[in-house]
Specification:
Number of domains of chain A: 1
Oligomer: heterodimer
Largest interface: A-B, 111 and 105 residues
Number of strands of chain B: 14
CATH architecture of one domain in chain B: Orthogonal Bundle
Structural class of chain B: alpha+beta
CATH class of one domain in chain B: Mainly Alpha
Largest sheet of chain B: 5 strands, mixed
Strand content of chain A: under 5%
Helix content of chain B: 25-40%
Strand order of the largest sheet of chain B: 3-2-1-5-8
Shape of chain B: elongated
CATH architecture of chain A: Up-down Bundle
Radius of gyration of chain A: 24 Å
CATH topology of chain A: Cytochrome C Oxidase, Chain A
Order of helices and strands of chain B: HHHHEEEEEEEEEEHHEEEEHHH
Order of helices and strands of chain A: HHHHHHHHHHHHHHHHH
Helix content of chain A: 55-70%
């Protein structure tokens, strides 16, 4: 009897915990939700990649049918870009930015929760195509006229359009929210040029998100109209086939910087901490970030050098693209200079951050190669480009995010991740990564096109494809080890203090993990790298405001989830039956009213 | 936490070894393959490669310098127990300005030949021989409009003669690229794009579609046969003359009947220039490739199979076996009997 009651209590408790996570508006919890969800999607994307690599291991392979293969490579890209890398950055935005700027939460906590649920539901919507055997199979770029209803009939194109449309709302809401948070909620004394560099790079990212995503939104809306309501935006005879590419890449190129800038920020925290030196040339790193973002809107045509716009546009965009290499090169050299003369501790986080600099340099250099337009006439759509983009997005972004995970894990969970497992994880990942992607340069030289499900046996593609496939499995093993390390370390990792790495920024002043309200006292910022300054220059005098009696924290709410659900229904309606859109529209409308009038205490 | 403080130097050095090994292996093994961008046989491809080589070596130098500095720093500036914090150096404006200007100069140096090469490749040569290329899902149509005939998947051109490839697509975007001869351009429905190039040597050159164009993007190959001018002229003349009429009462003649008979009705989709059935039906179908010189082509199904009688047989029975999702229907025993198929294959193989 008593046992039954206890079991029931436990069950009630469990529901209370689940309800708490569902309705939470705490930026740290939302950050963790983002982290685990994006990690899960990362493995979905990784499995798809292993499917692709397995098929390509040998010539004339019939393991995967062409139709399924096309779904695999398309979904691999979509999942990795929109459901794994971007949201994993958002996990760190959520968890770390308020801590680094000395805030108690983000500017709009319920909007933050809304962003997460829209991301989750949008991701599920995008992936649910697999349930019907009709996942998007048109490449993540969705070029018209292949993506039109005529050449891609059925639901696969609609999953692409509506999945991305819903996800875009999440990104826009998040970008706006964090932009306002950083602009308005910094602790007293934290001027812009005292902000941690991760906050700076994130701020630039949010500007990019707010300016770039609308172009994708417009493009997707037009494609949705073309596919479902017989408009002719992208028709060859009455509209323009190429217009899609312009709209897509005006979003798509800034998107590359949306993916890489947060990782720039992360390693700009990790390298100084483990070199025990400030970031070399802080203001140059900040302004080169701004320059990259600005120029990033003026280079989209370099994805379209082969569409035949004529020599003048190609010359102009070749020039602007090469210009971007200047601020990028400045950053790389500043990172190296940060290490120079330092006192370097090679933690796993540091290993990944250092490898980031090396691998990203390779991706940057190959990028300059196809910025030279005639070389792009060769490399475009060959495996050379596949190699390039993975050096940027895996060797760059993903290495940065892994470094961030090892670096901030003690803050998030109050324990260290295992360094011995971490080291094995690092070497497996580095070797597996290079084995997978470096040979793709050679395949590009040998003219292997990307996005082909098979290749003939007499083209000399066998060796490097086999090497790449072996590398991919090593890489998969390495990443599986990371998950093992995460789980093991959460359970039984060595306990970490508030400041486990001798950190430089103020997130290390609060407990690990931080209390719900982050800081007992609002921090007073006196310097860049304020915590280091406090420890080594001001000799430990922390300056704070008087203790605060009532710390107001926003209450939880289930309404953001409801509105997100409504949005997903609206999107699903376009795919299945418009009645769902009507229901979704009603849910969204009612939800927004409830949101507006929800009591806030 | 002592274990994360130290890490063997050899391990750090080890990070370069796999990369270096791969690079060396790559330099040794890459290239010389049938579709390689560095086996040059055309002026257009040559100017691309000539632009690439100096940029490549410049990249190697920058790569070695940056990675060298990175690894050197990691090895040299290692924390030892009890070390005080190093000098808190925040930057150095002179250094920063220097390494902002240095890449700018390097890029300016790259940019000059880039721009001149763009202009070169875009300029129309004097008196080019024009061939129209139309991309279809998933095969290539080559129209020799000036000479009044068309062919599919295998293009013939004369050596040392400037060629203008004038391109468009009938359905989705494709991209035309034969790495040994010229750089790629896309084929776009409703638009015209051009490639100018001159083949510098005779031979058979490989190419395929490089813009993802649907389920059979992988099997959209083509070949370019480069001939001496007189050989090419002969080929043009034979194409203009149309298909050879098979001798009466041969297997080939029987095959020609099969071509037009209702079960097969090949003529509904394919053209054979000059082939006329007994009832006057002409083979002028436009859905699939023109078959006038099919027997002469090294490939069938846009490179899905090598062109042998057995493969042609298999292809007609079930084109989806080797090229799933392509537009050509399969032909069962009821539509074309085994005996008829032998005759049909004999006829098609005889077309040159």
């Amino acid at each position: 009897m008593a046992q039954a009651v206890a079991a029931k209590d436990e069950q009630l408790d469990r529901w209370a915990v689940i309800w708490d996570w569902i309705t939470t508006s705490d930026h740290k919890k939302i950050g963790l939700l983002y982290f685990w969800t994006s990690l899960t999607f990362f493995f979905v994307g990784g499995l798809l990649a292993l499917g692709v690599r397995s098929q390509l291991a040998v010539p004339n392979s019939t393991m995967i049918s062409p139709d399924v293969y096309n779904q695999f490579f398309t979904m691999h890209a979509l999942v990795m870009i929109f459901l794994a890398l971007m949201p994993m950055s958002v996990a760190f935005f959520n968890y770390i930015i308020p801590l680094q700027i000395g805030a108690r939460d983000v500017a709009f906590p319920r909007l933050n929760s809304f962003s997460y649920w829209v991301y989750l539901f949008g991701g599920l919507l995008l992936c649910s195509g697999f349930l019907f055997g009709e996942a998007p199979d048109i490449g993540w770029t969705g070029y018209t006229s292949l993506s039109s209803a005529q050449y891609t009939p059925g639901m696969s194109g609609d999953f692409y359009v509506m999945g991305l449309q819903v996800l875009g709302i999440s990104s826009l809401a998040g970008g706006l929210n964090f932009f306002v948070t950083i602009v308005n909620m910094r602790a007293p004394g934290m001027s812009l040029m005292r902000m941690p560099i991760f906050v700076w790079m994130s701020l630039i990212t949010f500007v990019l998100i707010m300016l770039a995503f609308p172009s994708l939104t417009v493009a997707l809306f037009a494609l949705m109209m073309d596919r479902n309501f017989d408009t002719v935006f992208f028709s060859a005879s009455d509209g323009s086939v190429v217009m899609w590419q312009h709209l897509f890449w005006i979003f798509g190129h800034p998107e590359v910087y949306i993916l890489i800038l947060p990782a720039f920020g992360i390693i700009s925290e990790v390298l100084p901490t483990f070199s025990r030196k400030p970031l070399f040339g802080y203001s140059f790193v900040v302004f080169s970030g701004i320059a990259i973002a600005f120029l990033g809107f003026g280079v989209w045509v370099h994805h379209m050098f082969t569409v035949g716009m004529g020599p003048i546009p190609n010359m102009v965009f070749s020039t602007t693209t090469m210009l971007i290499a200047i601020p990028t090169g400045v950053k790389i050299l500043n990172w190296v200079a940060t290490l120079w003369g330092g006192s370097i501790r090679l933690t796993t986080a540091m290993l990944f951050a250092t490898a980031f600099v090396g691998m990203f340099t390779i991706g940057g250099i190959s990028g300059v190669m196809h910025a030279a337009v005639p070389i792009d006439y060769w490399q475009h759509d060959t495996y050379f480009v596949v190699a390039h983009l993975h050096y940027v997005l895996f060797g760059g972004t993903m290495f940065g995010l892994i470094a961030g995970t090892y670096y901030w894990f003690p803050k998030m969970f109050g324990r260290y991740m295992s360094e011995s497992i971490g080291r094995v994880h690092f070497w497996l990942t580095l070797i597996g990564f290079n084995l997978t992607f470096f040979p793709m340069h050679f395949l590009g030289v040998d003219g292997m096109p990307r996005r082909i499900y098979t290749y003939p046996s007499d083209y000399g593609y066998e060796l490097w494809n086999m090497v790449a496939t072996i590398g991919a499995y090593l890489l998969g093993l390495g990443m599986a080890l990371m998950v093992y390390n995460l789980i093991k370390s959460i359970r039984s990792g060595e306990p970490a203090s508030a400041d486990p790495w001798d950190g430089r920024t103020i997130e290390w002043t609060t407990t690990s993990p931080p209390a719900k309200h982050n800081f007992d006292h609002t921090p007073q910022i006196r310097a860049r790298d304020d915590f280091w300054d406090q420890k080594y220059n001001r000799k430990g005098e922390a300056e704070t405001t008087p203790a605060e009696e009532h710390i107001h924290l926003p209450p939880g709410s289930y309404i953001p989830l409801l509105v997100a659900l409504g949005l997903m229904l609206m999107g699903a309606g376009v795919i299945f039956t418009l009645w769902l859109s009507v229901i979704g529209g009603i849910v969204v409308t009612v939800g927004l009213f409830a949101w507006a009038f929800e009591p806030n205490d | 936490m002592a274990d994360w403080i130290r890490c063997k130097r050899g391990v750090v050095l080890g990070s370069l070894v796999p990369l270096l090994a791969l690079t060396l292996a790559g330099c040794g093994i890459t290239g010389g393959e049938v579709q390689s961008a560095n086996e040059l046989a055309g002026d257009n491809a040559r100017s691309i490669w000539n632009l690439f080589v100096p940029i490549f070596w410049l990249s190697v130098v920058i790569f070695v310098l940056v990675q060298g500095a990175l690894i050197w720093a990691v090895i040299k500036f290692r924390y030892k127990d009890g070390d005080p914090p190093p000098a808190q150096l925040h930057g150095n404006t002179k250094v920063e300005v220097a390494w902002t200007i240095a890449p700018a100069i390097i890029l300016a140096v790259i940019l000059v030949p880039t721009i001149t090469t763009i202009a070169d490749l875009a300029s129309e040569p004097d008196d080019p021989y024009t061939i129209d290329v139309i991309g279809h899902q998933w095969w290539w149509e080559f129209d020799y409009e000036d000479d009044g005939f068309a062919t599919g998947n295998v293009m013939h051109i004369p050596v040392d003669q400037p060629i203008r490839v004038r391109m468009t697509a009938s359905d989705v975007i494709h991209s035309f690229y034969a790495p040994q001869l010229f750089g790629k351009q896309d084929l776009i429905p409703g638009r015209e794009t051009n490639i100018y190039f001159t083949a510098e040597q005779t031979g058979e050159f490989y190419g395929q579609c490089y813009e993802f164009c649907g389920v059979q993007h992988a099997n959209m190959h083509f070949r370019i046969m480069v001939h001496e001018q007189d050989e090419f002229d002969d080929w043009v003349a034979s194409q203009q003359a149309g298909a050879l009429e098979p001798e009466p009462d041969t297997l080939e003649a029987q095959g020609k009947e099969v071509f037009f008979q209702p079960g097969a009705a090949c003529h509904a989709c394919h053209a054979i220039d000059g082939a006329v059935a007994e009832d006057g039906t002409e083979a002028i179908g436009q859905v699939g490739p023109n078959l006038t010189n099919l027997g002469d082509r090294p490939i069938i199904g846009a490179g899905s199979l090598e062109n042998t009688p057995e493969n042609l047989r298999d292809w007609i029975r079930d084109p989806h076996e080797s090229k799933p999702g392509n537009e050509m229907p399969a032909f069962s025993q009821d539509q074309i009997s085994d005996e008829d198929l032998d005759a049909l294959v004999a006829y098609l193989s005889s077309l040159r």
